[in-house]
Structures are given as structure tokens and as C-alpha cells.
Amino acid sequence: MEHEQGTAASIIIPLRAQEIEQREILRLNRLLETIPAGFEVIIVDDGSEPVVRQHIRHIVQQRTLQGQVVRGIYLRTRHRRFSLARARNRGARVARSPVVIFHDVDFLALTDVYWRLLAHIREVELATRPERFFCVPVAFLTEEGTEHFLENFEASQEAWCFRKRQNHPHERMNFLVQGSSCIVTNRDDLLAMGGHDEGFKGHGAEDFELLHRLSCLYPIAPRPPEYTRNMGSGPITEYRGFRAYFALYGEECRQEGCTLVHLWHPKRTEKGYYRHKQNFKRLQMVMDKSTTSTYGSRPQIDPRKLLEAH
């Protein structure tokens, strides 16, 4: 059932940019041209420069006049480290749809893929069944793969089929992540459990921590051996470690043809953006503490206090 304002799900897109012509803004415009009706789009500007913030306001106004359901959230965090966890939480709190989707600005797919995603959300009745949360698989493209994808994208053609893993050309894709940060979940349930842990700064592991708590509540299968071990982002060759477990939450969506791509970009140079070492250490501590509790129970932490403290 759709929300009273006509949107079945809210897509939350965090970003921070220094210039109007920056890659993130160009990709945001492409996304807004691609995402169809049926979605509310929430742009969370986590501390962009004032000129960029004003530009995003203009984009939101223009899209709204065109009938698209788009909203901008502007955080006064320019002098703080960029935080995906913080931005995603703010977006979820203001969302007006019963389902939220965490969507990076570098993700993309044809409009048809978003229609299939919307159909899948309705099919699993996520608006009323929080236990059916899932991940949208994301194929991380190489520079060559990005060029090839965009050529086909501009012609409204899918570059290749994502329904079979064997169809991925290795020279065009670095890896496929099924248990991705593109988490699709019931909004009320997410807020009740506190959203993302804002103790994770910058980029890295904050999505795995949320998936860990969600999977504790709604287990999809017995956990694999060495569940707390990070096996790396390469192909999953054995059922071992948390990445293999979380990948199960994207399997059904992949089979429905709902895979997104992550467009290639040079490694970001902002100081403090990548905090993989610190964040994965924090993730390990969280997992070690909570995996000793009864299987399937809520972890023995209260993340709602994190939201209240920020």
C-alpha cells in the first residue's frame, strides 16, 4: 500500500561537495532524472560549501515544480568530518514514506531497475513487515566498465544482465557486493532501533554494523563459521565471515534484476573520509560483544542514545 502522499519508499542520498561542477553534483542530477515516480528522494547535504548548498536548493525547487517528490536536508556540519551514518540517520528521520533506501550518489541503474525495485518492495510487504528488510546488490565498476555502462545507459539499454553472476565481465567490474550499503528497510522499525551508529565516522563499516543488528533481529540463516571475520570485498567463495552472511539479504533482490552499479571515481582525497582501519576495529568490538547473546535476539546496546546525543 502506498503512503498517503503517493510514495512507497524514500531514497536517501547523502553527499558533501565543495564546488557546483563537482562529480557528486553531476551524478546527483543524473539520479534525479532517472528515479521514477513512486519514490520520495531525500538529498542530505552534510556540510557542503554555501554555494553548493544554494545550488542544491535550486535543484530541489526545480524538481518539485516538475512534480517530482524531492526534498533537501541541510546539515550545518561543514567544519566537522563527513559522516555517512549521520547523514543517513537525518534522512530517515524526515522521510515520509514507510520504507527507506540508503543510496549513495555514485550508485545508478536504468529507470526500469528502480521500477523493479519498487515492485519488489511491494511484493515483500516491507511497509508492514520489517522482518523482510533486504539489500540491493551493487556492482562496483572499473573505469572502463563505467564508460561502457554510461554509453548504454544514455541509450536506455542495460549494459549487461545482472541476474547471473557469470555474466559479469571481469575487465568491467571489480566486484559484486550483495550485502551492500544500499539497505532497504521499514522506516519505523529502523528508527526504533536507532538507525546507523554515529560512532562510525567518515566512510567504512557503518553499513555492516547496521546489517549486523538487523540480522540479529531477523536472521535469514544460521551464521557462517568465523562470522565476525572480515574476508575482504572480493568474490565470496565460501560461506565464511559476515560478508557472506549479509550477502544472503541481497540474493532475492539480485534474482529480481534489481542490481545497481557503483560508478568508478578516483579515490577521494578529503582528510578523514576513509576511516576503514578505525571503523572496522569498532565493528569487530560491536560484533564480539553482541554475538555472545541469544541467537536472533536484539544486541545488548541501545543505539537510540546515539541519535539523542547528536
TrEMBL record:
GO MF entries: transferase activity
Keyword Transferase attributed: yes
Source domain of life: Bacteria
InterPro entries: Glycosyltransf_2 (IPR050834), GlycosylTrfase-like_prok (IPR019290), Nucleotide-diphossugar_trans (IPR029044)
Domain Glycosyltransferase 2-like prokaryotic type: 10-284
UniProt xrefs under CDD domains: Glyco_tranf_GTA_type
Record has Transferase as a keyword: yes
Alphabetically ordered keywords of this record: Transferase
Stored Pfam families: Glyco_tranf_2_2
Name of the protein in its database record: Glycosyltransferase
Organism whose genome encodes this protein: Halomonas eurihalina
Record lineage: Bacteria, Pseudomonadati, Pseudomonadota, Gammaproteobacteria, Oceanospirillales
